[in-house]
Amino acid sequence: MAQRRVLAINPWIYDFAAYDYFAKPLGLLYIASFLKSRGVAVDWVDCMDKNHPEVLKRQGRSRPKIRKYGTGPFYREVVPTPKVVAFIPRRYSRYGMPEDIFLKEIKQHPKPDAILLTSFMTYWYLGPKRVVELLRQVYPDVPIIMGGIYATLMPDHARQVVQPDYLIEGPGELKVATLLANLWDEPRLADHFPTDIDDFPYPAFELYPRLDYLIVMTSRGCPFRCTFCATYKIDSRFSQRQPEAVVEEILTQSRRFHVRDVAFYDDALLLQPGKRIKPILYRLLEARHGLRFHTPNGVHGRFIDAEMAELFYRNHFATIRISLESVAKERRRDIHNKITPGEMTRAVQNLVKAGYRPGQIETYIIMGLPNQRIEEVVETMLYAHSLGVQIRLASFSPIPGTVDYQRAIENGYFPANADPLLTNKTVIPLYRTREAYEQFHQLSQYANMLNEGAKRGVTLFQKGSYRAALRSALRSFAEDALIPRASDVTA
Q1: What is the largest CA-CA distance in the chain?
Q2: Segments of the chain scoring below 70 in pLDDT
Q3: 3-class SS of residue 405
Q4: What is the pLDDT of residue 488?
Q5: Cα–Cα dist 256/122, whole Å
Q6: Domains along the chain with CATH numbers
């Protein structure tokens, strides 16, 4: 019997903004690797591959524009803005390879026996939808199997709007292999499944002609239940890998693909540090690796003690993002209670003592939550700024299946059965007006201003006479009513 073949596709992103910040379809790469280990041939098309030769040729470049650590902008083409989000004063674009290059790419591969399509943000569903429309024209009789985040969180919407032949919810390796075994009547594909997370083969990064960075996971899922997060909906089981297996993967894959930058994709990287991340980092030190590490998903600052900070610094962690979200007591108690301001302060102090400058450390702050006042966001921003760290504002996106999504509907902030495009964080989903967008845009500009100062070691909270002078000036400013009223401006 001829070897079975699948075509695996990472779709486009349709959005107001998108950037390659350690962005790779890791779940699909794991599935591709698992199928390859079972004797299935895998062809690969990543619409978002900024190193694709035809995309570079279209731009008149030999290499993509790389900003830092292998990250950089995607190729994009402006497209009509969907009516439901047309009030946003920004251009809407399709990010990734042009459609003609995509069609050329899929046609150059042999006809597949099945097509695997992943999906990410719920408000990016136009990408997989367009991919399926084009695939129906080229391969009308080939079954399309779709999985990923959008498919898991909004399966009914995906079936109705994208219309794949089959839909996979949750982790896909075993489910896809079982489905293909049934479709092809080849039981061997579903025999002797791995029972341990470390028994799965490494993700199939060899499918890329060139890599700018590597992605690694030391665990899957998350034991926390933050009210705004859907990680536990995507993978309900929290499973951790053995430290030696993680280190072996990092060293083997980084050498194989000649990359220096490695990003951890975990949602709970520092949990149970003595059993997992600290042994990993000690083993990496022994290897004298010369790599740079990154934590784009945000880490739990309460676990950054002096030992952890030292391990970060000695292992060349170049990107450290700490999840702070809010300093408001009621908010912290409500959404997770993962970190207190005191724990955040100690984490930053430990990192600085280990050798970092405060401006090298970043923190996520959330805005636009249900019933969240602007003052709460500003207070959290000023607190982070007082520590000298960089502020990363994260606009709330109501993710289907989360507590805050349901709250937003029940309290009249968000319509039930809304178009997923309205969950786009750029839209400020709970407000959905041009005015709200402009207000939160001003917050972002204020954060940028604070960050520029922090980069230079200057904050609004300098010690001594500067702080006293600033407070006095602000008090006088308010008492003398120097702030112009709207009527004064328009008169």
Answers
A1: 87
A2: 1, 337, 463-471, 473-491
A3: helix
A4: 43
A5: 34
A6: 5-190 (3.40.50.280), 213-478 (3.80.30.20)
